[in-house]
Write a structure and sequence with these properties.
six-stranded antiparallel sheet, about 800 residues, alpha+beta
Length: about 800
């Protein structure tokens, strides 16, 4: 189907041409002596009806003397007459009278045409003339060999003279240009050959290049190509329409640049990356180079300077990746355009390169635009847009665009600065809440690793701790608060402190988790929409107590993965521990699991970030960690490094915490036990045994103090207990004195009055020991005191 089905009806021949116009011949008397077939077609009168008749019979109105005057004129005359048609219509016609030089039978030739048709033809002719001489659309005609035949005035102006290109191939017009529309062949010869061979027009191709009349600046044209054929349908060549759309194209590019800026600038929450994102978006479309200068405070995440524009002590950003990033100091003299821009908070265009840049030669900018980076309450810095290859200065639209980009960058930089500040505060908070160093213990050797989640927040809720307990025992805990950020870190710190407090009460693991569960449930109760209450997303915790005297380890879990144990023989197994519910759910009990550990056993406490990620299931992770523990004879630090290096590469979705413990045992030569019947006479015997044991250990200088402590503790137990009393002395980093009985009533420290006969013994014990306390057992209680070894 033809693209334009009515195209054959378009006729550019004049209606007054003899082949188309109505023609008649008048004699000297004004009678019709000749009547052509074209006249019959126009007015409908047959020759026999009008021949010999006065021509005035054809006039619809008007005096006949006017017609007589036109016939007697000595040169061609034209007029508009109303003529009568055979069917009674009146036709307004354009009529031309042409007198013959030698009058005879034929004196005047008359040519007539429909006035409306003539006016339409004249309009078409004016249109063609306007397109050739006045239209901004460039028209260029090529012959079948793709050589220039003709160009209108617009093409003539772009080429700085079309005459120099007549007969030359199309590729000579813009030798360095290129098509930037990619939905057709990018080569102009291929496009023209396609149009010539198929007759299919190609329209709306965008072409970028430099016109011979303006070789410095790049222009963009919208080009269309159409084939031309003669009356027989044979190709004559083709013509090209080209319209300079440079401004419209640049406006569209500016709009698309703003869209890209909205997606890219400020997406990283990193000051350095945001500065690089501004440069990535603006180069090369808006500028050849973009420089961003910021105060050191902004880069470090602190509040920007206030009170005056930061014209001094700025740092220029370099590099687009963390590895490449560096800064260089820069300052602006008070009279410089940069300082003026910062002081007035307005963009400044400088046609000359700034002196402070120190650049000369081809790389020097010939146009610079300085735009301050503004937030609501401060000036963050300065963005410099530089042009070196583009000869155009920054126009008003481009200045508006640069200001818009700078505003987006300023918002991104300020958000990144705030995030950096909050992130640093969160890291400081979390690190302060985690153990700075674990205390040295006789019971165990310890090594640990903490790897925060590699996320936008980077702060999580994992915690671990080692707590010195009475009787040379040690408490070990590891936990996980689901989530990241300040809230998770604060919750973690609160729980770690609570666990430490409960552990110092010498609670067994199941009892400790039960109390902790109640506290977490209480904290997570709704308190209104204040944004401060805990989000009950899940808290897991494992708590264990290891006794180096017996080698007994007791632990309980609140939804936490059980530990992995590698014994001294190298056998590795996951503890048979049935985890209880996560903390905060309430209502379900926690159970203790007891295991006897040989000397040199390695126990791995961990969070799920060590054994689970998006690509690895938890069973595979546990198998991987168990395989690492087969190297249990390695130093614990090395073993930690091996385990963490085996984590899958890439970003960490969750915090990963690993606590490795190698058990020790206190030998029999460090522990002395004595069972005493509930007889007050046994107090002296207890003092004597204690004195002898101190001599054996070489601690005779502690005899007086230890005898006093033993005397008071044994006396209290014998007074209130109903069964045997057990005295235990332990030589560790300090001297431990423990007295156990079957009573569940604990003594209380009080200040005795002057007339009281008793009540001073426990006060003396507290004054003479480093610390003391009471712990409850299944069969009763143990009162203990710890004395420093000189």
């Amino acid at each position: 189907m033809d693209r334009f089905p009515n195209a054959p009806d378009v006729d550019f021949h004049s209606p007054l041409e003899l082949s188309k116009a109505a023609a008649a011949v008048l004699d000297a008397a004004g009678r019709i002596s000749g009547w052509g077939s074209s006249a019959q077609r126009l007015l409908g009168h047959a020759p026999e009806d009008v021949l010999g008749q006065p021509a005035t019979v054809l006039l619809a109105s008007g005096p006949g003397h006017r017609l007589s005057a036109l016939c007697k004129a000595h040169k061609p005359r034209s007029t508009v007459l109303d003529l009568c048609c055979r069917d009674g219509r009146t036709l307004r016609a354009a009529v031309t009278f042409s007198p013959l030089a030698h009058q005879g039978v034929a004196a005047t030739i008359v040519v007539a045409a429909d006035l409306e048709a003539l006016r339409g033809w004249e309009a078409q002719l004016a249109l063609l003339q306007g397109m050739a001489t006045e239209s901004p659309v460039g028209l260029t005609i090529f012959d079948t060999d793709m050589r220039v035949v003709w160009g209108n005035v617009s093409t003539d102006l772009e080429l700085a003279g079309i005459a120099d290109y007549i007969g030359r191939p199309a590729e000579d017009l813009f030798p360095e240009g290129e098509f930037i529309s990619r939905h057709h062949p990018p080569d102009e010869d291929q496009i023209m050959e396609h149009v010539m061979s198929t007759g299919e027009p190609i329209m709306g191709m965008h072409y970028r290049g430099r016109a011979p009349a303006d070789p410095v600046r790049e222009h963009v044209w919208s080009c269309s190509y159409h084939r031309m054929v003669d009356a027989r349908g044979e190709p004559l060549g083709l013509f090209e329409e080209s319209l300079d759309i440079t401004e419209r194209y640049r406006a569209q590019e500016r709009l698309s640049l703003l869209v890209r800026a909205g997606k890219r600038i400020g997406a990283s929450l990193d000051v350095r990356r945001t500065a690089a994102e501004l440069a990535d978006v603006a180069v090369p479309q808006l500028a050849d180079e973009v420089q961003v200068d910021l105060p050191p405070a902004v880069i470090e995440g602190r509040q920007p300077p206030t009170g005056s524009a930061p014209g001094h002590s700025l740092l220029r950003m370099h590099g687009r990746t963390p590895e490449e990033f560096r800064t260089s100091p820069v300052s602006y003299p008070p009279s410089s355009p940069q300082a003026l821009s910062l002081a007035t908070s307005r963009p400044i265009v400088d046609a000359a390169p700034p002196e402070s840049s120190g650049e000369v030669g081809p790389a020097a900018a010939h146009s610079c635009l300085f735009v301050p980076l503004l937030t609501r309450d401060a000036v963050l810095g300065l963005a410099t847009f530089r042009r070196s290859s583009n000869p155009d200065p920054f126009g008003p639209e481009e200045q508006t665009l640069a200001v818009e980009l700078a505003e987006r960058a300023a918002v991104g930089i300020d958000n990144a600065r705030r995030y950096t500040s909050q992130h640093a505060a969160a890291l400081v908070l979390q690190r302060s809440l985690l153990p700075q160093r674990l205390p040295e213990q006789t019971a165990v050797d310890v090594a640990y690793r903490y790897l925060p989640a590699d996320s936008r927040v980077g702060v999580g809720g994992d915690w671990f701790d080692l707590i010195s307990l009475s009787g040379a025992r040690v408490g070990l805990t590891v936990g996980d608060v689901v989530g990241h950020g300040m809230h998770a870190a604060a919750t973690m710190g609160r729980l770690r402190g609570t666990v430490r407090t409960l552990a110092l009460l010498d609670l067994d693991p199941a009892e400790l988790l039960t109390r902790l569960d109640g506290l977490v449930a209480q904290d997570s109760e709704p308190r209104g929409d204040d944004g401060l209450s805990d989000e009950t997303l899940g808290v897991t915790c494992l708590y264990a107590i290891y006794d180096p005297v017996s080698g007994r380890c007791v632990w309980a879990s609140a939804g936490h993965p059980p530990p992995i144990v590698a014994d001294a023989s190298g056998s590795v197994a996951l503890s048979a521990l049935a985890p209880g519910p996560p903390l905060g759910l309430g209502g379900l009990p926690y159970e203790n699991v007891e295991l006897s550990l040989s000397r040199g056993s390695v126990v791995a406490f961990f969070t799920d970030g060590v054994v689970e990620d998006r690509r690895t299931d938890i069973d595979s992770g546990i198998d991987r960690l168990s395989q690492m523990l087969t190297w249990h004879r390695c130093p614990l630090e090395e073993l930690c490094d091996r385990a963490m290096s085996a984590l899958p590469p890439g970003p960490q979705a969750d915090d990963a915490t690993l606590l490795l413990v190698r058990t020790r045992r206190l030998g029999a030569d460090h522990v002395a036990d004595l069972e005493l019947p509930p007889d007050p006479a046994m107090v002296a015997h207890a003092r004597t045994v204690a004195e002898r044991q101190l001599e054996t250990w070489g601690l005779s200088e502690l005899s007086f103090t230890v005898e006093l402590v033993v005397s008071e503790l044994v006396t209290n137990s014998i007074r209130y207990a109903t069964g045997p009393v057990m005295l235990r002395l332990i030589k560790d980093r300090s001297l431990l004195c423990e007295v156990s009985d079957n009573a569940h009533t604990a003594p209380h420290l009080r200040r005795a009055r002057r007339d009281d006969e008793g009540g001073r013994g426990l006060f003396l014990v507290a004054q003479m020991s480093q610390r003391w306390g009471t712990r409850y057992t299944a069969s009763g209680k143990t009162i203990w005191a710890e004395l420093a070894i000189p």
